[in-house]
Amino acid sequence: MTRRYWNINLEEMMEAGIHFGHGTRKWNPRMVPYISAKHKGIHITNLTRTARFLSEACNLVFDAASRGKQFLIVGTKNKAANLVARAAIRARCHYVNKKWLGGMLTNWSTTETRLHKFRDLRTDQKTGRLNRLPKRDAAILKRQLSRLQTYLGGIKYMTRVPDIVIIVDQQEEYTALRECITLGIPTICLIDTNCDPDLADISIPANDDAIASIRLILNKLVFAICEGRSSYIRNP
């Protein structure tokens, strides 16, 4: 794996509040190696470990992007949804930021069928075909299109399961993580002090409730992906 310098510094992470974990009563004992202290009833994440694993994750996605691999970014809770969409669009990645539909990856044939339906309805809307239908039929199809856009809009161009999945909140996206594990898809997961660090291929200990924390982690990963894509374009 290529080793690069990603300009990850502790001061920047502290300003983003990455070091703030959950309350000491709400934690996973397996996170002990990633916790440096307790302060006013909350655990404090060891930012040196965070920097190390974030750097490893950046190296992984850079290498994958430089070989033309495809990424999926998953984060559906309110604080992460918009950040996930912006990061994915910037890095030309697929994303899920509303609701993870069970079997989205493990039952790919069903997902593929839904995507075909989604694309067909989008085409019908763009060509005006929906407006030429009886009002009742058009209304039903438009509701279907709206629902598909909400849940599948971020993966509308995905033609196969992704090569790497980036997950913003392990607890929130546990179903997605289990599907990746079942299929053997490498995962990068942002984990707070209430998570299991042994589930993902690379777990990045960080505050998964603060917008600034999520944004910083995603920005670093997206920058690495964009750098890798540029390398792929220059050296096809």
UniProtKB/TrEMBL annotation:
Alphabetized PROSITE patterns for the sequence: RIBOSOMAL_S2_2
Similarity-based family: Belongs to the universal ribosomal protein uS2 family.
NCBIfam families (UniProt xref): rpsB_bact
A GO biological-process term: translation
Listed SUPFAM superfamilies: Ribosomal protein S2
Keyword annotations of the record: Chloroplast, Plastid, Ribonucleoprotein, Ribosomal protein
Keyword Cytoplasm: no
Pfam families in UniProt: Ribosomal_S2
GO molecular function, one term: structural constituent of ribosome
Subcellular location: Plastid, Chloroplast
Protein name: Small ribosomal subunit protein uS2c
GO cellular component: chloroplast; mitochondrial small ribosomal subunit
InterPro entries for the chain: Ribosomal_uS2, Ribosomal_uS2_bac/mit/plastid, Ribosomal_uS2_CS, Ribosomal_uS2_flav_dom_sf
